[in-house]
Amino acid sequence: MRKVFDQSVVAVDDVSLEIGEGEFVVLVGPSGCGKSTTLRMIAGLEEITAGEIYIDGVLVNDLPPKDRDIAMVFQNYALYPHMSVYGNMAFGLKLRKYPKSEIDERVREAAAILDIEDLLERRPRALSGGQRQRVAVGRAIVRKPKVFLFDEPLSNLDAKLRVQTRAEISKLHTRLGATIIYVTHDQVEAMTMGDRIAVMNEGLVQQVETPLNLYGYPTNRFVAGFIGSPGMNFVEGQITSETGGNLVFEQVGFRLPLGRTQSERLRDYNGTPVVLGIRPEDIYDVESAARNDKTTAPLTATVEVVEPMGSEVFLNLRVGNAALVARVDPSTMPSVNDTVTLAVEIDKAHFFDHREGHANLLATSTTA
Predict the structure, then answer these.
(1) CB 270 within 8 A of CB 338
(2) Helix 129-141 and helix 159-176, axial crossing angle in degrees, nearest 10
(3) Helix %, strand %, coil % of the chain (to 5)
(4) What is the spatial order of strands in the sheet that 233-241 belongs to?
(5) Taking a C-beta distance cutoff of 8 angstroms, is the pair 306, 333 a contact?
(6) Contacts for 27 with CB less than 8 Å, ≥ 6 apart
(7) Distance, first Cα to last Cα, the chain
(8) Local confidence pLDDT in tens for the 368 residues of the chain
(9) Cis link prior to 230 (omega < 30° from 0)?
(10) At 12, phi and psi to the nearest 5?
(11) How many Cβ atoms from other residues are within 10 Å of residue 213's Cβ?
(12) N or C terminus: which one in the chain shows less Cβ crowding within 10 Å?
């Protein structure tokens, strides 16, 4: 599937994705990566430049949106202000000339699922943001479509309500067994909601995987940096050999020995520039590493910023020329400019090709 604007701007570039019945797939990526355009092409709101779209085995390229048996929930809710909640939810069914009894049954069933039965007579202006979002979802539910499409539906909600509403959408998916394609720029939403996640950048699908495989086996540096909060640390350096044949990663003021499996797989990169990737949660205080029997290497660093988060502490560190973030136990509370010794879990280190594309040299998970 491909979309080109004005004959030169490639918004979506050869996206190929198969979504199973009842699956919850999240399209995630930064602004402008092509995820909403992809969703709009599936919905029929954007004409595709090349490729084919099938819904339930039927080619829908030339079908208008109303004939694709999809329901879409938008970021701005798109509720009719002069209609009640009941009227908004029933409107699409009235246009399709459903019997009044069936409309009433569907609306009240959806309202019960979403716990908005006591709001049916209100107008949108009398609703909170979260209630309006539920109405927009309810309007989609009454259609009983083959596919639900969500385009950043939680962007207008505050942080607490986002957490609550994403849990409700996940429960709704389980209850209905519906096929859902969900677009967001928020990687936390993607990780907590999707059966599979498609990470997009610059119109391309970088990787499609389950949340845990995506986190553990990112296919390239972009995916590794986008998934995870705080983001993965990256350090440019090179792999060299030490006495005995073991490999180490080195940069000015920074040295990390490789594990046995890593050394075996990266033997051909001896003397080659690479990029080390290590997640903040894989840098421990020394006592914690010892308690958990981790295979670690010491890391001496200067503390530049301390960010207490309650259950954890983020340390912004300087190690030689490298800036790192560590996510440590709250009992570790150094001061700015202190020198600290931490432990890096060797087996959790990733190594990326220094060349364009920045492929993960250790990735074992496949891209769908």
Answers:
(1) no
(2) 20
(3) 30, 30, 40
(4) 254-257, 247-251, 233-241, 273-278, 350-353
(5) yes
(6) 35, 38, 39, 181, 182, 183, 184, 198, 200
(7) 15
(8) 999 998 888 999 989 999 999 999 999 999 999 999 999 999 999 999 999 999 999 999 999 998 999 999 988 888 999 999 999 999 999 998 999 999 999 999 999 988 899 999 999 999 988 899 889 999 999 988 999 999 998 888 888 888 888 888 898 899 889 899 999 999 899 999 999 999 999 999 999 999 999 999 999 999 999 999 899 999 999 999 987 778 999 988 888 999 888 998 999 999 999 999 999 999 988 777 667 777 888 899 999 999 999 889 999 999 988 999 999 988 888 999 999 999 999 999 999 999 888 999 987 644 44
(9) yes
(10) -135, 130
(11) 17
(12) C
Number of H helices, E strands in the chain: 10, 20
Structure tokens, 297: 């290497």
The secondary element (H helix, E strand) that includes residue 85 is: helix 85-95
User: Which neighbouring-strand residues pair with 235?
Assistant: 276
| Separation between Cα atoms, residue 172 and residue 179, nearest integer Å | 11
Alpha-carbon span 153 to 155, nearest angstrom: 6
Residues 6+ apart with CB under 8 A from 264: none
> Helix, strand or coil for residue 182?
strand
Single-letter amino acid code for the residue at 335: S
Place of tokens 């930064």: 30
Nearest to 11 by CA among 24, 29, 357: 29
Q: Specify burial of residue 133 (Cβ count, 10 A radius: 0-12, 13-18, 19+).
A: buried
Residue 15 CA to residue 34 CA, distance in Å, equals 10
Name the token pair of 321.
């020329």
Cβ atoms of 190 and 184 closer than 8 Å: yes
Q: Which residue has the tokens 């949108």?
A: 124
Instruction: Tell me how far apart the alpha carbons of residues 205 and 26 are, in angstroms, rounded to a whole number.
Output: 12
